[in-house]
Amino acid sequence: MKLSVAIAGKxxxxxxxxxxxxxxxxxxKAHTLGYDGVELxxxxxxEVSKSELSxxxxxxxxxxxxxxxxxxxxxxxLHFTDExxxxxxxxxxxxxxxxxxxxxxxxxxxIGRTRGPxxxxxxxxxxxxxxxxxxxxxxxxxxxxxELILEPxxxxxxxxxxxxxxxxxMLKKINRKNFVMMPDVFHMNIxxxxxxxxxxxxxxxxxxxxxxxxxxxxxxxxxxxxKEIFESLSSFGxxxxxxxxxxxxxxxxxxxxxxxxxxxxxxxQYYR
Length: 272
Ligand code: LER
Ligand code: MN
Hints:
CATH superfamily: Divalent-metal-dependent TIM barrel enzymes
Order of helices and strands: EEHEHEHHEHEHEHHEHEH
Structural class: alpha/beta
CATH topology: TIM Barrel
Shape: globular
CATH class: Alpha Beta
Radius of gyration: 17 Å
CATH architecture: Alpha-Beta Barrel
Strand content: 5-15%
Helix content: 40-55%
Number of domains: 1
Distance between the termini: 7 Å
Number of strands: 9
Bound molecules: L-Erythrulose, manganese (II) ion
């Protein structure tokens, strides 16, 4: 498995779930601390220059693990299940540009809270709005060789697609090769039955994983059953990214350092 950390630009909202801010500084820190990659949480596709990003990654022997889109929802209010046509156009344009960026960096674009809420509407209507946009972005992603990773998110953040089973059912309906899943163990701890069983039941779609402890602090700082997580993931040969998407507690440097020490230390056998 490979280890990554969630980062954002300097202008990211205070509530962005990232450890470091400022893309260049974050890349240097991630490399110094011993990460293999960074996940870029972007509000807008033009927040980073492609040439600078390549240079910083090259200088620090780091990869982009994925582009994440939570800030598109949190900061700009755009989402897949919006009925407003102007907003849908803006969301589609943003996703196409994220996909273009991912075709050079990492090849994966996340859909977390950007799926949008049900918000009291008829579920069939919401699903149709979601499926319509899902196919449009999947068409563009297919041309660019990019995969879309749908993330189950807990009920306190959004009321649509909360656990892995619900997400798999949606992915079956979408039925596109490049539409897969990004489980986040923080959300799974709230929504799924047994984390290990749920990973195994839904293994065909598991493409990328977010790591945090039960309190959303660094792995090892809560009461998550990491043995169950590593054993279930490795039981089906998962060898992809594990990205720390944690609160910067007690401060960003300590949280990022503790993550590396715990995962590469206690669970080092999975990171070779
Ligand atoms: C939000 O809680 C989260 O986990 C993000 O990765 C998705 O927007
Ligand atoms: Mn997440």
